[in-house]
Design goal:
It is built from 15 helices and 9 strands. By secondary structure, the chain is an alpha+beta fold. This is Adenine DNA glycosylase.
């Protein structure tokens, strides 16, 4: 048996029972792939099922309110995926009468869909001869063929794409593409794979050269930036608080949060009091909720976060009840605070 035949046999014997595998409907495949781009399968399943319940078809998602979508998405992170998903749903309804295009060329033009997702939808939903390349596939190919080209640089991406295309079987394309991704997720795992039980062990170059743990190669880019967030959690006598919506193109666009004071480093109570007084007027009392910073780690930045409880008699017309505040789409950092604080 050749490489692709071994992958197909392994998949038939080991594939997981996942909710999006009961159909080849493009809407379901697209939804699952968008959710799993930077999410583990176990975490993604309940979100997928929740979205399918709320939006059974692309028409339902297109009609939805963005804030509702962001609230349902809360906890998955990378909220631009949810906004792009919503935009694409509306575009498909408006320009394709609710039917997903069937070719890679058309799919990759849609917002939020890159090479991998376009290839996955085209092959799984429409049987097109397209090779998928996600992190799992990169790992399998790099190890099996002993390829040390960086997978996140142009030369490496081009080489792996050509190799992946050359390995496509003439039949069973859907199962093969799902199989090689599954193989990477379960058998050829990132850490401590059980190579002794691998059906590819006899011809795996990385195993022969004893460098399984060194492949694939990925060049580290960029320096982690520290940002200091000070959230002002206002409370009044009517059980109200203040929320604001994040605007601009930075992190968490369009999500809600408590009023934020961002600083260059850890700040003092006096500095926070001065800021509150200048922006919001007189207050009754203010104290730091967490003496130890909550460090929220994102891909290129760490948010060193403190929450300040600000008691104020009257918060004015912009105040919202705490009950309403719980319904807002918020970053997971804010949601976790609300849960701890019994907000």
């Amino acid at each position: 048996m050749n490489f692709s035949q071994k992958i197909l046999r392994w998949y038939q014997e080991n594939k997981r029972d996942l909710p999006w595998r009961i159909t080849i409907n493009a809407y379901n495949i697209w939804l699952s792939e968008i959710m799993l781009q930077q999410t583990r399968v176990a975490q993604g399943i309940p979100y997928y099922e929740k979205f399918i319940r709320h939006y059974p078809t692309v028409f339902d998602m297109a009609k939805a309110d963005e804030e509702e979508i962001l609230k349902l998405w809360q906890g998955l992170g990378y909220y631009s995926r949810a906004r792009n998903m919503h935009a694409t749903a509306k575009y498909i309804v408006q320009h394709y009468n609710g039917k997903f295009p069937s070719t890679y060329k058309e799919l990759i033009e849609l917002k939020g869909i890159g090479d991998y997702t376009a290839s996955a939808i085209a092959s799984i939903s429409f049987g097109q001869k397209e090779a998928v390349l996600d992190g799992n596939v990169f790992r399998v190919l790099a190890r099996y063929f002993g390829i040390a080209l960086p997978i996140n640089e142009t030369e490496g991406k081009k080489y792996f794409k050509e190799l992946a295309i050359s390995l496509l079987p003439k039949t069973d394309l859907r199962d093969y593409n799902q199989g090689i991704m599954e193989f990477g997720a379960i058998q050829c795992a990132p850490r401590n794979p059980d190579c002794s039980k691998c059906p590819l062990k006899d011809s795996c170059k990385a195993l022969q050269d004893n460098n399984v743990s060194q492949l694939p190669v990925k060049i580290k880019k960029g320096k982690i930036k520290n940002r200091y967030f000070n959230y002002l959690v206002f409370l009044d006598q009517k059980n109200n608080t203040l929320m604001e919506q994040r605007t601009g193109k930075g992190i968490w666009q369009n999500l809600y949060q408590f009023p934020l004071l961002e600083s260059n480093n850890k700040i003092t109570l006096d500095e926070v009091e001065t800021y509150v007084l200048n922006r919001f007027g007189e207050m009754e009392k203010i104290h730091l909720y967490n003496s130890e910073a909550v460090v929220h780690k994102l891909s290129h930045q760490h948010l060193i976060t403190h929450f300040w409880i600000v008691e104020k008699t009257n918060l004015g017309d912009t105040a919202v009840s705490i009950e309403d505040a719980r319904q807002f789409p918020v970053p997971v950092l804010i949601a976790q605070f609300m849960e701890r604080f019994k907000f």
